[in-house]
Design brief:
Elements: E1 7-11, H1 17-36, H2 46-56, E2 62-69, E3 74-86, E4 91-101, H3 111-125, E5 130-133, E6 143-146, E7 165-166, E8 173-174, E9 178-179, E10 187-188, H4 190-206
Parallel strand pairs: 4-5
Antiparallel strand pairs: 1-2, 2-3, 3-4, 5-6, 7-8, 9-10
């Protein structure tokens, strides 16, 4: 049995053939399983699903989280999401549309729970005010989880403020800056810190020549 620690969770890149094919395959498997256990009509063919995925690939409002078994590089789970908007909260809302895990990886592995955690991380990154599990509709009221969003991270117009700052040396945007040892007024990124350290070591090593 595959252990939980041997599975990697990451965002799918729809422009990469491997990721796109796996998304289509797992969503199609999910649709087949759902239709076979209910009176739902047959799922659309893979070709139609793939075409729709390509049409929406450039839409930043859609994303998929993949669960990948490290040793075999097999995708064993997926959570497919869409970001909508709440007029009442004036913030984005994450809608979890589909969640599917291969039958062999469902017992005692917490793959679905980890997919939820990764989607929540992405929802927070996108500053969503809540998560809605759409698969529970219309059988019952959709599951909702309210997310805390700090207003102090926003500008006067309500737009999220980029927490990153520009490196004084290379102009790279980063969340972490350090004090330069060569220029007292400069705040520099980790890469420039490493370059300064290398230059300093060089100066010490060859200063006597």
């Amino acid at each position: 049995m595959t252990s939980t620690t041997s599975i990697t969770y990451r965002l799918a890149n729809y422009s990469v053939p491997f990721d796109a094919n796996e998304v289509v395959h797992l969503l199609n498997s999910h649709a087949k399983e759902t239709s076979s256990s209910s009176s739902t009509s047959l799922p659309p063919p893979k070709s139609k699903l793939q075409k729709q995925l390509q049409l929406h690939a450039a839409n930043d409002s859609m994303f998929s989280i993949l669960a990948i078994q490290n040793q075999s590089n097999t995708v064993v789970g997926i959570q497919h999401c869409f970001v909508s908007f709440s007029c009442a909260e004036c913030r984005p809302v994450l809608e979890v549309l589909n969640t599917y895990v291969l039958p062999s990886c469902r017992e005692g592995m917490d793959v679905e729970e980890r997919l939820h955690e990764k989607s929540e991380e992405e929802a927070k990154r996108r500053r969503c005010c809540k998560i809605v599990m759409m698969e529970k509709v219309p059988v019952e009221m959709p599951y909702q989880k309210v997310l805390e969003v700090r207003d102090e991270d926003e500008g006067e117009d309500g737009a999220a403020v980029d927490a990153r700052k520009k490196c004084s040396a290379c102009s790279t945007l980063t969340e972490t800056l350090s004090q330069s040892t060569m220029m007292s007024s400069w705040q520099i990124c980790n890469a420039c810190v490493s370059r300064e350290q290398a230059a300093s070591a060089y100066d010490v090593r060859y200063s006597g020549r």
